[in-house]
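In this section we walk through a basic example: taking a raw amino acid sequence and producing a predicted 3D structure, encoded as discrete structure tokens. The instruction is simple. Fold the sequence below.
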Amino acid sequence: MDITKLKFDEKGLIPAVVQDFYTKKVLTVAYMNRESLEITLNEKHTCFFSRSRQELWRKGETSGNTQRVVSITADCDYDALVVEVIKNGPACHLGTDSCFTNLLFEDGETQAFALETLYDLLVQRNKDRPEKSYTTYLFEKGKEKILKKVGEECTEVVIGAMKDDKAETIYEISDLCYHVLVLMVEMGISVDEVKRELASRHVIDHKIKQETMK
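The resulting token sequence is shown next.
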């Protein structure tokens, strides 16, 4: 990346939109000066310039909620950046996944789905334990019951697939995913932790493939 093309403002800053590499969710908007950008490029972890404190700050320096940089892309005018990261913990200083949590408008007709959204909903269900909720029932019964349901749904997936019934298999896989997410909440396992594990396997497989091609 040729940073000489970048257009920093009169204060020597450029806005950086930080985005989750996996979910594409916008995590925060921060500012970088040339030095913090160079640190980010060298260390492969986000470093910003605090306008309020007038100093450099490495994300996660005190909280441990670091952000490993995957890519940095400049816009067409070279005066703004999109920084894709793999985050380790909440992005916001308030402890939320993203700084953008205050909804001002929602279409209502178009709803996006993500495993993270369902996971967050299950976390809230576990806290609130609303009455007559199947999810509440599972959490109240505990891990043994949840594990039993995971096992049952695995069997249902196998049965659907053995019948070569695509619609039934999709239905049962969805049930399995839901119950696995409930188990993850019960055990304190985050979606990010599973993604990092899968990503590490992908890297290992890629390295093995490269070695076998030599």
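Looking at the output, two observations stand out. The longest helix spans residues 191-213. The mean pLDDT is 91. In the next section we compare this with other chains.
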